[in-house]
Amino acid sequence: MSTAKKIGLTAGAIVILGIGGYALAKYDTGSYAHVLYEKTLKKSSKDDTQVHRITDKSVKPTVKVDDRSESPKSNLGKIEKTLQEQNFTGTYAVIKNGQVSDSKTIGKGIENGKLYQVADLENTLTAVAIMKLVDSGKLSLSTPVSKFYNESLELSKNVTIKSLLNMTSGITNNNVPNNQLQPGDNILQWNLNHANTGTSGTYNYQEINYVLLEGIISQVSGTSYQNYINNNFLKPNNLNNIKFVSKVSDPELATPFNGDQKMTGGELAKAMNSQMGMNQIMASPSDYLKLMQILIKSYGDKQGFTAANAQNMTGQLESSADGFEGSAGIQGYKVAVKISKDGNSGIILMSNNSNGQTSDSNSLLEIVRKVFITERNYN
After folding, report:
1. Which of 29, 162, 244, 252 is the most exposed place for a label (fewest CB within 10 A)?
2. How far apart are CA 242 and CA 77, in angstroms?
3. Concatenated DSSP letters of 253-290
4. pLDDT (tens digit, 9 = 90+) per residue, 357-376?
5. Are 371 and 347 in contact (CB under 8 A)?
6. What is the spatial distance between Cα 301 and Cα 27, in angstroms, rounded to a whole number?
7. Left (φ > 0), alpha (ψ -120 to 50) or beta: where does 12 sit?
8. What's the predicted TM-score (pTM) here?
């Protein structure tokens, strides 16, 4: 999101080959990542395996309809008209009567069936993963963070799981790693090495809070963060078009732009390394909207699901008078979503053109709000 956030990276091995599958390794031929890239290609050839491109069969060409009709098709026509009026380019999906629609593209040159970065909106999923552990009795919101990081951080017992969720822990990391870290570096350890501890209780957006939460999920569950998310949320719901970036190849990505400039592999690597590393998620609009719907129906009324204060962004969805909403972005990608409290109506927009600033993703959220009203009026 905003460059002022100085966002860190998540738990797991540092992403050298994880950028869009292999973008950094491919373009920076002088880097250690490129050496790993070459080795990976040789190993893939030896094992006679191939990287397959996602085929999102749910994506169909946009169909023009008569806006004068008030049929369900007319509803989609009105939504597309609203998006065109707002100069939106990208891909979207809607929820009508509880059902998630196919993905649709808007704008010249937008490719069908591609995956988009969800940026720090992934924090909603991380928060729910924590809540699931709380429900199972393995954790509580009042558990001190020092229980898990006592040897690495000097923290008071006032810094709890809830403090990390709300970003009021006082823990900061204002460093941004290079796009070429040394082999063997650990993302969680890198953040711990650069962490500073201050007075808790005051809100400060720092992605290191959710880095630590991912590490706690791994410790408590006894498996990696990726395995926990896959086994508890993605696989059970057949969300095959939501993937961790380390599992995504270049052809699957919606080509990222910043204004009129296509982002290079190195620029994309730096942007993604400044956020979530290989634990970042990329998704199709339909599958990510379906995931948000599932999370809302299961956890929407529970403490910890939304940010404690609507003015204090955490990457979680925020509660509004007519539903839940949120937005996020990095250079090259932005996303915004809004869903009713019952999960029966909603809209998600994903764009592959962003400058990464908070104002840019907030502008997308304003469009979502307009379309949400259109969708509900004609549902």
Report:
1. 29
2. 27
3. BPPPEETTEEPPHHHHHHHHHTTTGGG-EEE-HHHHHH
4. 999 999 999 999 998 987 66
5. yes
6. 46
7. left
8. 0.78
